Amino acid sequence: MPAGQGKVNDRTSADGGSVSGRRLPGGLVSPARRGTLGKVSQLRGLRLQRRWRQRDLADQVQVLSRRVLDYTMSASERTISRWESGQGATPSLPAQRVLAAVFDVPIEALGFALPHALEAADETQLATAEACPADVLELVTRLTRSDVSPATLDLLARRVDRLCRDYPLRPAPELLGEARGWLDRTLGLLEGRTSLPAHRELLVSAGWLAALVACLHYDTGDADGAETWREATSTLGAESGHAEITGWSHEIAAWMALTRDQPADALRHAQAGQRIDRTSCVAVQLAAQEARAAAKLGDRAAAEDAMARGRRVLDRLPDPVHPDHHFVVDPAKADFYAVDVYRWLGADAAAESFARGVLEHSLGPNGAIRAPMRRSEALLTLGTIAARRGELDVAVGYGLPALGDPRQCKPSLLLVAADLDAELDAYRGEAVIEPWRTVLAEVHRPRTLGN
């Protein structure tokens, strides 16, 4: 379910949503840098004081607008980026009211021109432009010229968000096809003429799509395709200066290493990612992967330290509006990773408690399954614990439905299923476990074009 924070410097902002400005001919600063200067930076400063990403602020705008305006105001990461950088329109008065409520400050503290001041500001900017040399004006024109309209960028941002939110439920091959189509379109737009801000927005959208495509390739058992797009995610994160996207490339690498039973490699990737981003959603998930790797290596102290570190980061983040977004982490997702940690440490009571919590959360208010992959892995954990107790009927009763859901991440599913299978191996020959062995062998069977 779709962004990084860290030490603020000239290259990467604390939210991963701003890229270093570059000095241009004539002493100008690129549009990416202009956003850190002047009054428009006051909004960014307020956000960073709370250690929020641009997406977190967008979430808060949507939540608070219902209270302040009695309707939901649409806001995205791109919206916040435009407001902070000074690119595009100044926030409307209703939007400024919502922002003031979010930060609990007077509207004037946001640093934006109020409606009555906009006309005067436009006249001042025109006078400044008229005083500029002709070559500088030409440069500014070229930098801001683009064949990609704001409406196109908005549509793309909304579609990327929707695809990331579809991840938990849509069949992986179907979602992969659509995500690849949008990724191809985005990469095509990058080949055209764009302004610097638009170019960066396209890189960011392509980065999120590449990360999603990498996960979907791996879900379907295509490790080579997953690694190709994971590397592309890393490149796009670096080119856009988006620390969180780069962090997710390391998280995906850690996840894949764990499913290949390479916990030392997983630990290395998880720790490398946290050196890039320590304060956003990806930092929470990287800490969870570090904990899982440490548990696989039998280091309980390190595993619990990593989980506690992730919880501290999570406690500072606002509640997400869309927790189903694949690249968003909420407390329920953190609990899901704790299941693996305690199962691998042999702490059955804790593993069982977390697994039952995951099962409860995986069902919506109407009883429909809303997190099938988490549910399957929680069932396998309960089956493993039952097998450790010698309760074979119970173990198989949990294991069989876990293998039957059509929405699967095959490598992750087989990783957890292997634990149950190892426990049942001590009872080889018992008739009660034969259905489990038969169904597990079918899941292991490679996909073919006819499947």
Please report the distance between the alpha carbons of the first and last residues: 26 Å
Largest sheet: none
* N-to-C series of helices and strands: HHHHHHHHHHHHHHHHHHHHH
Low-confidence stretches: 1-40, 115-134, 136-141
Q: What fold name stands as the CATH topology of the largest domain?
A: Serine Threonine Protein Phosphatase 5, Tetratricopeptide repeat
CATH architecture of the largest domain: Alpha Horseshoe
Overview of the molecule:
The protein is mainly α. The chain folds into four domains: 25-135, 434 Repressor (Amino-terminal Domain), CATH 1.10.260; 147-241, no CATH class; 244-314, Alpha Horseshoe (Serine Threonine Protein Phosphatase 5, Tetratricopeptide repeat), CATH 1.25.40; 330-451, Serine Threonine Protein Phosphatase 5, Tetratricopeptide repeat (Alpha Horseshoe). Helices cover 67% and strands 0% of the residues. Helix 18 (372-388) runs antiparallel to helix 19 and helix 19 (392-404) packs antiparallel against helix 20 (410-424).
Quick summary:
The protein is mainly alpha-helical and 451 residues long. The protein is built from 21 helices and no strands.
Please specify the SSE layout and strand pairing:
Layout: H1 31-34, H2 41-49, H3 54-68, H4 77-85, H5 93-103, H6 115-130, H7 134-144, H8 150-166, H9 172-190, H10 196-219, H11 223-240, H12 243-259, H13 263-276, H14 281-296, H15 300-316, H16 331-345, H17 348-361, H18 372-388, H19 392-404, H20 410-424, H21 434-444
